[in-house]
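Bit of a strange request maybe. I'm writing a small parser for structure token strings and I need a real example to test against, not something I typed by hand. Could someone generate the tokens for this chain?
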Amino acid sequence: MAQRKIIDVAKELLEEKIISYIEPSEKKVESARRKVEEAKQNLKKAEEKARLEKEQWLKLKKEFAGKIDANRISINNFKKKLNSASDKVKAKYEEKLHELEGKNKKMMVRIGKYKDERAEKWVSFKNVLVRDVEEIGSSLSDLSKSFLK
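Reply from user aminoacidic:
Good idea to test on real output. This should exercise your parser:
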């Protein structure tokens, strides 16, 4: 009888040990499942964010390409007007036009070479581009006004 009790107690202890080994692995599996689901959700969010950023970049690139092309057309039109002007007037404006034309071409190259960077660099790049495009447009406008005087 005492042997029977010892065997029963040993069985219970053994069962508890087995269960304690099984239970943590089930928890580990469940924890791993949760982590996989979280990773899947994070991946979906990251993919969506990347898609939106790419769309934003393409939209901005198209917008700036249009503005840069408009600046190029304005510069060419201004050059045509200068052809009928005196040599003194041509000399005054040609240097500034050449400078603006160079800046305009550099901006187009910068847009073409831009690689997706961190968000901080993107914001900085965009701000510089906006400033430069506006600066060229403003300079062209000022040149036109002074030329027409």
